[in-house]
Fold:
Amino acid sequence: MTEAIRTTCAYCGVGCGIAATPLGARSVAIRGDEAHPANAGRLCSKGTHLGETVALTGRLLHPVIGSKRASWDKALDLVAKRFRETIARHGPDSVAFYVSGQLLTEDYYVANKLMKGFIGSGNIDTNSRLCMSSAVAGHNRAFGEDVVPARYEDLDEADLIILVGSNTAWCHPIVYQRIQAARAARGTKLVVIDPRRTETCEGADLHLAVKPGTDVALMNGLLAWCDRHGGTDPTFIQRHVDMPEGFWEHVRSGHDLWTTAKTCDLAPAVLQQFFELFAATPRTVTLFSQGINQSIRGTDQVNAIINVHLATGRIGKAGAAPFSITGQPNAMGGREVGGLASTLAAHMDFAPDNVARVGRFWAAPNMATKPGLKAVDLFRAMDEGRIKALWVMATNPAISLPDAGRVREAMASCPFVVVSDIMADTDTGAHAHVRLPAAGWGEKDGTVTNSDRTVSRQRPFLPLPGEARPDWWIIKEVARRMGWRNAFAYDRPAEIWREHARLTAYQNDGQRLLNLRSQAAMGNEAYDAMQPFRWGGTPFADGRFPTADGKARLVLTRQMTVAEPLKAWPMTLNTGRYRDQWHTMSRTGLSPKLARHREEPMVEIHPDDAAALGIADRDLAQVRTAQGQSIFRVALSEGQRRGEIFTPIHWTDQNASGGRTGLLARPLVDPHSGQPGFKSTPASIERVTTQWRGFLILRGDEPVRPQCLWATRITVPGGALYELAGNGDPARLEGLMPQGDRVEAMDASRGTRRIATISEGRLGGVMMVTRTGLLPSRDWLIRQLEAEGVGGSVLAARGPGSQPDKGATICVCFDIGLNQIVAAIREQALVDVPAIGKALGAGTNCGSCRPALANILNQATQETLHAAE
Structure:
């Protein structure tokens, strides 16, 4: 048997280690790496099913110029020529790179070096701008350097963990499991601060459903409480913290319990409970994520959290730290090399001495001397005609950026757009003049850095398919063709790593904590064998910070006025992720198991709001904002605050006709970080009426585009399921049915039509639509895609003795549905989540469904009690 290759997961910033065992052509067995410090063998549902995502379905396998296949030489020569000509005519600031936390550190390093050291512009920014740049700005303001002052071990040692703006159970499941393990082992208390009641809240000691955008008021109120009740650490402040004039006067004014409760829309008693718990618990970790960062006051929100930890001495100690947890696998690596437009390289800014230092190190002919355009401003400049050549690497801004309609218009007007990607067809790639095939996860070779500063190796276990090449190779080949051959003479990623390590150490006599001096002379074999390591140790344990005087900075933060609902936009739109999907689904969308947890893009709304608007569960609804509009499937949720709605970020033109959240968000950004505020866009919602609804199931992986109001593609074993709805005559969709013997059934009274095509006993496709009748469960029909001897009875949508509908998928790992779980609870009198796991297996692998199991158990128990009464 082939030996397992130790590599790193492709998804979130937890940075889980993976043992990948190749089984044959494009096939691999995945398990968690027990020796990796981030996860100790545990994997979430997405990591567990990575093996389902490595096929070549939809891959871009050769360079494309326009719509025609091209050689690498021709494509690279054209990219170099057009960038060179654009710079010559319009200057270096007329070109830009937009890159990604999906890149490896070595890829990032080469791209940043080319743009800032040789092209001579700061115009390289990353999609990490959208998820954690406010944390970067907050760290720099407070500590003098972008250093996360926490380790995962702090979660094991804390007595109180506060989750702020983080649906950890869904977005960082392995961290959530670690938190739950600490609670079981040492009684650690858990407080969740989130406007929504998510699955992360299940079982928490306290949930504060704050009004969106009031986190500064909450943290200032907490600090005022600590000041009033002796909860600060005056000795630590005197020795290790510098504060601005009037800091305590500001905190003490207008941040009393009652005022804070009113601002945050919380009950004073609940708020006091939180304040008292914090003040009594020195070993506290405050873990924050997108709910804090993705705000037009995100940096102040970050600093308000850090202020509390600095003023109470909860930093640099075991089990006590503010902890920013990143969204992407290598957002941290990009921060380390300077992948953000606002940083230079190796945690250095654009101060003249830093520009001179990096210029000497690189022997750079044309150093950038100022920050470049941040993401939103970059695409705005393109729309205005100031950016004339753009290179997008490993990301999909046509979907992910706010006001995505304007972003698409900007790319459509740009004279030259290059896209490096693994997928042939993306919403961004549709605007590219040149598309370059990049290596995908499983083929990449390099390093990534996770949320607690642990560097891990990304090792390839699959060959490069077709003509795909690593991103660092593509970038250095363009650089060499632009005339800088010697500076980009890399033959392997180990050479790039050593250069990056040397730069972090170059003339760094302790000014910056990021110092990889010990890695600078690493040989190729040692690089290949590199074990995970964390740089920076336990930051600030000695009370010293990387500032000129060695002290941290308290920052004055002010709560901005939260606007009241507008008549035209009475709702507030919040956006975020689903548990089993990732970004724009180019990878997770290939997995049949991951696709079943949330099959369609939903708009979640409180039942009271829905009733007032005449909207029912499972209806279609149009969400509108000043930027755009899109249709979603409705999901009623008691966890939503009244007046607020939530939509997911994942769906694209490639897999749905609606669900386009990127079209809706405002392009307003934080003034310090440039991070967009995705969490509070004024919106409206109204029911969409359709004349018919239905579904289409097709064999194979060739996508189709149903021409109707609502169509969502869901990957299933052996093919795809399309959920459909629309107006007019659905007969026009019959052209999507494949060739084969055709069987049909009609019910004119209900406007129901069922059609299937069968060829040599194999189901090619089935379509069922109705105007007033019921539609059958899809599960049995989906199984027929891989069955033999299928006959005309398939139109009955169930076979003899077939199993009842399992319900919505809850446990993706073992494909267990809601109805199965409820039946087991009732029939076997199950009383807790471990009992459900023992009976069905649900929740015993990745564990990310355990909060959902607890909620189902509670509801089933309540229903049983009511029935008994």
